[in-house]
Amino acid sequence: MGFVVVTDTSGNLLNKQVRENDLKVLPFSYYIDGEEHTCLDTDAFNGDEFYEIFKGDTKVTTSQINPNTYLECFEPFLKEGKDVIYVSMSSGISGSCQSSMLAAQMLREQYPERTIEVVDTRGASLGEGLVAVRAAQLRDAGVPTAEAAEQLRDLSERMFNVFTVNDLMFLRRGGRLSNLSAIVGTVLHIKPILKGAEDGKIVAFAKVRGRKRSVEALAQQYDKLVVNPESQTVGIAHAACREDAEYLISLLNKNHPPKDILLVDYEPVTGSHVGPGALALFFESSVGVRSTNSL
User: Which domain holds residue 111?
Assistant: First the structure.
């Protein structure tokens, strides 16, 4: 009995987290000049090398996970008498969540005695991955499937995803920035501050001058909104800008040091849509923060 926790590579977890939490991870695909790749082995991923290719003419594209892949993943666990919780990348930026829901509905009809829950985190990178880790903790604590799913949806509501990028071109090109009117020019060194909104889409909600101030703006959001930092793991993902990530860590530890900080290279699928220089922060915050619209 019990449930299996399934997530995907957008969750940006290290091999150690996947292994220690007994997670089943489905791969998103990305294509470099048409050649397919996946990133299941995060230890082997070289972020500096990957993001260097964006400086040239190399074309990088991505694809979503199709319903059949979810069917093939979920069904063996159902046959074993186990429930399934799938912790998904935001439905606001990928169609994969909808594909998983279609597969789940089909399987519910075949296995009415089993419970299949899809948790739309409305986030990506560690905004998804940290929710998957919590799912494993709830599983190990013996929390029933439906109750665990509700707790995970509540956590997703409170998981603040805030980030800055060097160039909005990557988000624009992929259609992942919902308020195009917020775009500002790079000539004046204006940097956007973005977040995952209530509907899971990406919105720019502030702008600052200069890279250093954009990093400090992320820390300001943390200081303003974080709850119980001493008991939570905070996530940071960076796309070939480790020095900025280290500066952000120093700022987080200054006023409200968290229990732990998980620092990762931005995985290639989500990373290809935010571009080199992207820096993201993920933490548990108070209820309703996704509607916050200013610094």
Answer: 3-157
